[in-house]
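Section 5: illustrative case.
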């Protein structure tokens, strides 16, 4: 029996009929899938046809918290947006921090299911359990930060907000769902799905508490885990001091920093855009999410030059890379400005920068006619970067509309989709697999397309002594382990960065003590494996297969030109069969009936 961690209610909102109703949280599903990513995916699996058009009213969106959200557990402020993603066509689950998730639970709900499509723009106002569907025509077209401000003014200044920007309204496949103005559920185009439903946002306020199933054990688990994180050199040192951009010099130093659309993997000017430089030149203050002892977030300001006075959240490491090295740019102010614009329009920074880099290569090689570009799209051009992001957000011309669909469709339009550095049409992030072999396997097998937070192999290949980053042997098992671990973690409601210090047994103890459900390390990982296999089944039913578990031809065939990983390519096939075997899947990447029976999800077939 579940004794704590949940409020026990799900809010279902039919936007077509403007009807809301409360449903009880299913205890059997909570035990099998925890919450957040797991439980939310189970809802989508049950209620959405995997072959549905992601931007049709038949698709649904689940906003989901986990049992640790809103508690005193470290970094317990995550919220998940689960749907079928329009960028990839896969199951999509995008994760954000901040305070919205805990506030949703304090308002009395563990999750929100959004279905149908409103005839006119609306937003939801959830105030201590009471729900209103309000007119949002006056908010449509507003930037994210302005929408956040206006919705608070119309509801309550202490409320927490979720919103989309113009990118989501115009159904850009790179559109985010934003929280509190600058926290992003940033991948797979989830913002476009929300926009397709004419939903501008959600405002939440509540004052309920979240009880622990075993208060004494939970208090002890919280104390222990916070002490571990405080002593960890990454969670308690590097991240608070320099933010995630502390990785710029580290990853560049091993020659795995994709540069100029991954034509190379070493950026000689990396120091100019590093976390150290960002702290010295632009940092205003650190920022943390709910109950976070790490506080890796940055609030920054441009203090000189043409963008003087511009300010906002971030940029994170991935954003610094995508607007920096990936585009051949070492102008940190331009990188910051591009990041601020993405937050205001509601655009995923990883895909945005990578799409601009693809456009630059298409332009420089003559595949994109000069007449199609409103300005010279050359690598290293700060103006081209910033104006491309603006065009992407506004979509006023064909150039902006093309960019807003991502690098794969941009490359396809000009006859060169191979210049898209993407997996399942989603741009991969800031780690070149040619120099960190396990990351290639992670990208290829990720259930939501190119992604680094579904099993962060860089942690064991670069950031801690352990695996040889250039070896292929022994990469399948830790990849599976980390994928299962992050699936359970994402479902629990706490941040991935806690795993820099915490182990599976620590996370299992937090989950077990808050819910009162007996769960050790092995069971916690089994739940994660169950979630991973469920996501795989959804994608198989959507039409994906082994052929989609691959990498861009550049990564597989073109050696890195310079730096510490010079000469390397990624030989993915040396790892893929072993990975499938460890997963209990057949050679085509299909989970066997025995595996599904072992995981108690054979009913999903």
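Designed sequence:
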């Amino acid at each position: 029996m579940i004794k704590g961690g949940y409020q026990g209610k799900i809010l279902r909102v039919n936007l077509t009929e403007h009807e809301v109703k409360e449903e009880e949280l299913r205890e059997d599903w909570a035990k099998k899938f925890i919450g957040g990513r797991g439980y939310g995916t189970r809802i989508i699996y049950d209620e959405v046809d995997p072959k549905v058009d992601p931007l049709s009213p038949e698709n649904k969106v689940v906003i989901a918290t986990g049992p640790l959200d809103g508690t005193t557990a470290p970094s317990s402020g995550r919220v998940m947006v689960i749907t079928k993603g329009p960028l990839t066509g896969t199951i999509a689950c995008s994760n954000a921090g901040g305070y919205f998730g805990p506030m949703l639970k304090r308002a009395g709900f563990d999750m929100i299911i959004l279905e149908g499509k409103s005839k006119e723009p609306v937003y939801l106002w959830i105030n201590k359990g009471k729900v209103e569907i309000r007119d949002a025509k006056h908010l449509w077209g507003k930037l994210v930060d302005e929408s956040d401000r206006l919705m608070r003014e119309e509801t309550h200044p202490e409320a927490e907000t979720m919103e989309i920007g113009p990118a989501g309204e115009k159904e850009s496949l790179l559109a985010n769902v934003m929280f509190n103005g600058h926290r992003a559920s940033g991948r797979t185009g989830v913002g476009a799905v929300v926009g397709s439903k004419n939903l501008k946002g959600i405002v939440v306020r509540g004052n309920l508490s979240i009880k622990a199933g075993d208060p004494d054990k939970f208090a002890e688990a919280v104390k222990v885990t916070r002490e571990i994180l405080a002593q960890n050199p990454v969670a308690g040192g590097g991240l608070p001091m320099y933010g995630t951009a502390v990785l710029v010099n580290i990853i560049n130093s091993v020659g795995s920093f994709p540069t100029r659309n991954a034509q190379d993997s070493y950026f000689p000017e990396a120091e100019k855009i590093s976390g150290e430089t960002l702290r010295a030149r632009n940092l205003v203050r650190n920022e943390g999410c709910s109950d976070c002892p790490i506080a890796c977030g940055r609030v920054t300001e441009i203090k000189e030059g043409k963008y003087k006075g511009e300010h906002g959240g971030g940029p994170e490491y991935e954003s610094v890379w995508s607007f920096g090295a990936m585009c051949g740019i070492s102008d940190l102010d331009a990188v910051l400005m591009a990041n601020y614009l993405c937050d205001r329009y509601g655009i995923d920074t990883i895909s945005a920068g990578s799409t601009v880099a693809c456009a630059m290569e298409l332009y420089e090689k003559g595949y994109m006619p000069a007449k199609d570009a409103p300005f010279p799209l050359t690598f290293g051009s700060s103006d081209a970067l910033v104006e491309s992001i603006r065009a992407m957000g506004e979509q006023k011309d064909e150039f902006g509309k093309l960019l807003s669909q991502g690098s794969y469709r941009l490359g396809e339009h000009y006859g060169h989709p191979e210049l898209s550095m993407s997996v399942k049409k989603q741009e991969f992030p800031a780690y070149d697999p040619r120099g960190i072999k396990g990351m290639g396997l992670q990208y290829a097998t990720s259930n939501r397309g190119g992604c680094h937070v579904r099993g962060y192999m860089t942690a064991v290949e670069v950031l801690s002594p352990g695996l040889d980053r250039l070896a292929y042997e022994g990469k399948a098992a830790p990849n599976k382990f980390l994928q299962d671990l992050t699936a359970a973690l994402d479902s629990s409601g706490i941040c991935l960065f806690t795993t820099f210090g915490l182990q599976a047994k620590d996370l299992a103890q937090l989950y077990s003590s808050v819910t009162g459900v007996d769960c050790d390390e092995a069971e916690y990982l089994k739940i994660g494996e169950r979630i991973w296999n469920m996501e795989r089944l959804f994608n198989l039913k959507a039409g994906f297969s082994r052929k989609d578990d691959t990498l861009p031809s550049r990564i597989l065939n073109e050696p890195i030109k310079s730096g510490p990983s010079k000469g390397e390519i990624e030989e993915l096939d040396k790892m893929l069969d072993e990975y499938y075997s460890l997963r209990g899947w057949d050679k085509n990447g299909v989970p066997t009936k025995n595996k599904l029976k072992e995981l108690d999800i054979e009913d999903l077939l």
